[in-house]
Amino acid sequence: MAPLNELHWAWQIAIATLLVIGGVFSLVGAIGMLRFSDFFMRLHAPTKATTLGVGGVLLASLAVHWTQGGRGLHELLITLFLFVTAPVSANLLAKAGLHLKLPSQCGLPADPAAAEASAKASAEPR
């Protein structure tokens, strides 16, 4: 395995760019966690920005393994697992927050079952 400083300059630039992009997205996700005020807004920071940040770092790691003759299977599996599980966990957390009626700045959506029941009750003749 060759040290990273002996790689072709194009690979070095590509790996450094992926690391910087990953770091910027992770930083934006961390700032979003601090700045957003309620649960539903804070849910976007780790699921969107931080997922892309970790993805950028994993792609850089994959590029390093490719340049050194490896397959990078571990990085591919981690990236796949991350991009599949992050949206699913965010969806489950959002549903749990709606179920618990956590406060939100933009208000909670109306309960479709309750809205349908009230519409049926108002449509029936008295």
TrEMBL record:
UniProt protein name: Na+/H+ antiporter subunit G
Membrane-spanning segments: 12-37, 49-67, 73-94
Short name of one Pfam family: PhaG_MnhG_YufB
Cross-referenced InterPro entries: PhaG_MnhG_YufB
Organism: Roseateles koreensis
Sorted UniProt keywords: Membrane, Transmembrane, Transmembrane helix
Keyword Membrane (UniProt): yes
PANTHER family cross-referenced by the UniProt entry: ANTIPORTER SUBUNIT MNHG2-RELATED (PTHR34703:SF1)
